[in-house]
Structures are given as structure tokens and as C-alpha cells.
Amino acid sequence: MPPVLVYTLSRIGIFAVTLGVLWLLGLQNPLVLIAASFLISGIASYVLLSKQRDAVSERISNKIDRPKPQDD
């Protein structure tokens, strides 16, 4: 599975879990619920997904650094 897809699905999953936990804890205001979930999941993703983020960065760097074919 491509690292970009793994990282993206992991971020969405962490956000969904955070949203569910905060809702179960009684946070009912939708705007506050989404904002808090976004903030908490962002911090959690930064800590928990460092290996996936490095893999995505390496893949993008390799694609950028690859020489382009010449059209001579």
C-alpha cells in the first residue's frame, strides 16, 4: 500500500476515534466537538505517525529527485 494512502487513512482514523471519544464524553456542541477533535488528533498524529510521515516524505523526495527523461 502506498505510504501516502496509509498516512492519510491513519490521520482520518485518528480524527474519527477522537471525535467519537469526545462525543461519548459528553461534548455535544458540533463546532466545539469538531474543533477539539481536529486539535487533539493533529497532536496525536504528530506523535504517533512519525514513521509514516517519514515514509511519505522519502517517497515524495525520491520522485522529485528522479531525473526527468529527455525528449531529444
Automatic annotation (TrEMBL):
Entry keyword set = Membrane, Transmembrane, Transmembrane helix
InterPro entries membership: DUF4229
- Name the chain's protein: DUF4229 domain-containing protein
Highest taxon of the lineage: Bacteria
Q: Which residue windows are transmembrane per the record?
A: 5-25, 31-49
Q: Please tell me whether the keyword Transmembrane helix is annotated for this protein.
A: yes
